[in-house]
């Protein structure tokens, strides 16, 4: 799939999935993060690690959907896993790759 062209392309993808999942986004930011790939708040704020721009877009999609689903499901239980499958298919392969990437 390749790397992201720029921040705009990444943000457009966030808004695409937010619309698909029906999640209102209040604030969206890409910034350096030392210990995680993304974070979200209950008031609709999303922060993504700017290092994602250097990674394959499939990994970005995984992080985007993962974070957006936490607005609906706060844990990684059966429902969350089912929804990940609905939006990304075999997401577990991407999840494995992400485990080996250092933040």
How would you describe the overall organization of this protein?
With 103 residues, this protein is an alpha+beta fold. The protein is 47% helix and 13% strand. The chain is built from 4 helices and 3 strands. The longest helix has 15 residues, at 7-21. The chain is globular, with a radius of gyration of 13 Å.
Structure at a glance:
With 103 residues, the protein is of the alpha+beta class.
Keywords:
47% helix, 103 residues, 13% strand, alpha+beta, 3 strands, Zincin-like, 4 helices
How is the topology of this model organized?
Elements: H1 7-21, E1 27-31, E2 38-40, E3 45-49, H2 57-69, H3 78-88, H4 91-99
Parallel strand pairs: 1-3
Antiparallel strand pairs: 2-3
Helix pairs in contact: 1-2, 2-3
Helix content: 40-55%
Give the count of structural domains.
1
* Separate helix tally: 4
Strand content: 5-15%
Low-confidence regions: none
Radius of gyration: 13 Å
Largest sheet: 3 strands, mixed
Query: Can you give the mean pLDDT?
Result: 94
The CATH class label is: Alpha Beta
* H-E order: HEEEHHH
Q: Structural class of the helix and strand makeup?
A: alpha+beta
CATH homologous superfamily placement: Metalloproteases ("zincins"), catalytic domain
Distance between the termini: 21 Å
């Amino acid at each position: 799939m390749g790397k992201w062209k720029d921040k705009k392309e990444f943000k457009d993808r966030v808004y695409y999935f937010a619309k698909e999942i029906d999640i209102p986004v209040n604030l969206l930011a890409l910034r350096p993060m030392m210990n995680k790939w993304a974070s979200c708040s209950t008031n609709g704020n999303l922060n993504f690690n700017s290092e994602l721009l250097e990674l394959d877009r499939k990994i970005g999609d995984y992080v985007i959907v993962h974070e957006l689903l936490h607005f609906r499901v706060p844990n990684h239980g059966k429902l969350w896993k089912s929804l990940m499958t609905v939006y990304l298919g075999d997401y577990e392969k991407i999840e494995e790759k992400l485990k080996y990437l250092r933040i």
